[in-house]
Amino acid sequence: MTPHPPADGVPEEQSFEHDGMTFRADLDGPSDGTPVVLLHGFPGSRQTWKPVVQRLRAAGVRTAALEQRGYGASARPAHVDDYRVPALAGDVLALADRLGADRCHLVGHDWGGIVAWYLAATDPSRLASLTVLSTPHPRAYAAAAISSDQGLRSAYAVAFQLPILPERLLTAAGGRLLQRSLTSSGLNGVTARQYAENLSTPAAMGAALNWYRALFRHPSDIRVVDDVTVPTTYVWSTGDTALGRAAAERTGSHVRGSYQFIVLDGVSHWVPETRPARTADLILGRIGPRPDRPRP
Predict the structure, then answer these.
(1) How far is it, in rounded angstroms, from Cα 106 to Cα 97?
(2) 107 in Cβ contact with 120 (< 8 Å)
(3) Could you give all domains of the chain from N- to C-terminal order, each with its CATH number?
(4) Which of 66, 77, 79, 226 lies 20 to 30 A from 18 at CA?
(5) How many angstroms separate the CA atoms of 22 and 14, rounded?
(6) Are 69 and 75 in contact (CB under 8 A)?
(7) Which of 26, 91, 110, 240 does the annotation list as catalytic?
(8) Which helix H or strand E contains 233, and what residues bound it?
(9) Mean pLDDT of the chain, nearest integer
């Protein structure tokens, strides 16, 4: 596939087959150069990146925002084990292969960050750089969970292990509980409503929650994430209610390549949604404008 630049700044939706399912991604920006692959988290979507992509496009950067496993009806397997981290990482590599990219710049937020850390540790030759928003390195997170308040901050993930009940509660009354939780943690109401609508059925919500369930069932999947050598920027915000300072500050000890740690004061967990310009600047700071574009 050799996609052409979208006209008038409208992303081009591309679909590709992988693991017996049909995945979708929004491609934007010029077709030459190494792509920047964008991975959303829970309960986001490829639309998470829309305001960020607008700014990256203006800088001449090519982007591919993946609709991750379970977030689209055509790539929504029924079993929890289908959402193990190696499978999620395989989806990203399948997108890169479909783009014809031996290497890509990878950006992940929230759960997308977990997948990004995994790929950086297990398949570094496929990445030109790594930018992670909010989510600390898994080993830093594990250490903080037993030595700080991180365990309490993550208690909601334990509740997600219950069968059926979490998806029913989170989709009831048009997703009112989910919307309230998102807005109270700093997300704007319009985006919170959009995310709730995207996961408005128990099947859709259950697929998103299966990411948490699969990791609880198979913690060894994430234990393989060792120190990374890929050039890395890690961004943490002081207003993040889910992820605390202890893990954020430990993350640098697990990066042996070029590393930059950025702290956003007073910003919530929802970095790409609420600070798109700053997010785009930080991505550009890591990858450079028009990464790897052939010179005339």
Answers:
(1) 14
(2) no
(3) 7-148+222-287 (3.40.50.1820)
(4) 226
(5) 10
(6) yes
(7) 110
(8) strand 232-239
(9) 94
Q: What's the DSSP call for residue 255?
A: B
Token duo for residue 231:
């050039």
List the catalytic residue out of 18, 40, 254, 269. 269
Instruction: State how far the Cα of 22 lies from the Cα of 123, in Å rounded to an integer.
Output: 23
Looking at the chain, the number of H-run helices and the number of E-run strands are: 14, 8
3-state secondary structure of 289: coil
Q: 75 burial class (0-12, 13-18, 19+ CB within 10 angstroms)?
A: buried
Percent of the residues in the chain that have a pLDDT greater than 70, as a whole number: 94
* 32: confidence class by pLDDT, cuts 50, 70, 90: confident
Neighbouring CB atoms inside 10 A of 14's CB total 16
Q: Residue 20: CB partners within 8 Å, gap ≥ 6?
A: none
d(CA 123, CA 89): 10
Phi and psi, residue 202, nearest 5°: -55, -35
Catalytic residue among 71, 83, 195, 212: 212
Query: Based on the number of CB atoms within 10 Å of its own CB, is 66 exposed (0-12), middle (13-18) or buried (19 or more)?
Result: buried
Q: What is the mean pLDDT of residues 222-239?
A: 97
Tokens 């925002």, residue located: 65
Q: Is 234 in the active site?
A: no
CB 233 within 8 A of CB 131: yes
Residue-wise pLDDT for 154-165, tens only, equals 999 999 999 999
Please name which of 117, 7, 131, 110 lies closest in space to residue 68, comparing C-alpha atoms.
110
**What would the pLDDT profile of 149-204 be if each residue is shown by its tens digit?**
999 999 999 999 999 999 999 999 999 999 999 999 999 999 999 999 999 999 99
Element (H, E) at 112: helix 111-122
